[in-house]
Write a structure and sequence with these properties.
The protein is built from nine helices and 16 strands. It folds into three domains: 99 residues, Rossmann fold, CATH 3.40.50; 63 residues, 2-Layer Sandwich (Dna Ligase, domain 1), CATH 3.30.1490.20; 96 residues, D-amino Acid Aminotransferase, Chain A, domain 1, CATH 3.30.470. It has 301 residues and is α+β, with helices and mostly antiparallel strands. The longest helix has 14 residues.
Length: 301
């Protein structure tokens, strides 16, 4: 197969591993800087240009679109889809997962466990928002935040009101969620590939930090997840429509709750913690599924 990978940094561990895995299985993989692509939109034959040349027709495309370039990245991916190139994850599914509010609404619709989550526009509704969330402590998240940035733990109702009013006064959209204190600063990331959980790790935040992101000083170890946690991860991936994703869950007193579904999960932490060849499993999934024009949405919204 001839595979394109949309990625801005070819030297990241995940991107190098995917390239190694593809080449080890006899495929050709080109890493294409997403932001250097440009497109002929109006043509009856959709085309993508890169560094002054028209891109050849690929069998599959692996989108590794950073959160900061979601809008342009999904536009380029839609163009690939309209050319009939099979995407590892479809543009519509990535868009769903990147919109924190929409993703929570879809997960709730499908009956997937979530922390109590509230959203309001008017700062005057702060009191009601806190009451619905169960009162402090609460976690306040920027809708546009990623990788633990823009996430605040407010210990008291007073501090929560101050943070909410400050964010809303600045015109920033936020979610307010109950704080799952029984998770004790740990979460579970389950890697889903093709509707199956292929690996799982438990992440623990750095000392004094309730966030468990590995790049913020957290640590990881392999973990055996329960059948309910496995089912929750698989259903969350299906809700978003993602073939490959990382599902982040907390263990609460009322079962697993999903915090986020990541459409471009990093491979370094989970591969090193579990010893599982995730990159190879992803390429194997493409081998079985990549067929011209098999995209469900074909670039539709």
């Amino acid at each position: 197969m001839k595979i394109a990978m949309m990625a801005r940094n070819a030297n990241l561990y995940s991107h190098k591993r995917l390239q190694e895995a593809a080449e080890a299985r006899g495929h050709e993989l080109d890493i294409i800087n997403t932001l250097r692509c440009y497109m002929n939109i109006a043509s009856r034959r959709p085309e993508i240009y890169y560094n002054g040349e028209k891109l050849p027709l690929y069998d599959a495309v692996i989108p590794r679109i950073g959160a900061s370039v979601t809008f342009y990245g999904t536009a380029v991916l839609r163009q690939f889809e309209m050319m009939g190139v099979y995407p590892l994850n479809e543009s519509v599914a990535i868009g769903r997962s990147r919109d924190k509010l929409r993703s929570m609404q879809l997960l709730a619709r499908d009956g997937i466990g979530l922390p109590v989550t509230t959203f309001a526009h008017d700062p005057k509704q702060t009191e009601e928002v806190l009451n619905i969330s169960g009162g402090a402590p609460v976690v306040i998240k920027l809708l546009e935040g990623t990788q633990g940035i823009g996430v605040v733990l407010a210990d008291t109702d007073r501090s929560a009101k101050s943070v909410i009013e400050a964010f809303r006064g600045a015109g920033v959209n936020i979610l307010v969620q109950e704080f799952i204190k029984e998770s004790a600063g740990t979460d579970i990331r389950a890697l889903v590939v093709g509707g199956k959980v292929v690996a799982a790790m438990q992440r623990k935040g750095a000392e004094g930090d309730f966030r468990s992101n590995l790049h913020r000083g957290g640590s990881a170890k392999p973990i055996k997840i329960s059948p309910e946690e496995r089912s929750t991860a698989i259903r969350a991936a299906k809700s978003m429509g993602l073939n490959v994703c990382g599902v982040d869950m907390l263990r609460s007193n009322h079962g697993p709750v999903v915090m986020e579904v990541n459409s471009s999960p990093g491979l370094e932490g989970v591969e090193k913690a579990t010893g599982i060849d995730i990159a190879g499993l992803i390429i194997e999934f493409l081998e079985k599924n990549a067929k011209p024009g098999k995209t469900k949405t074909r670039g539709k919204g």
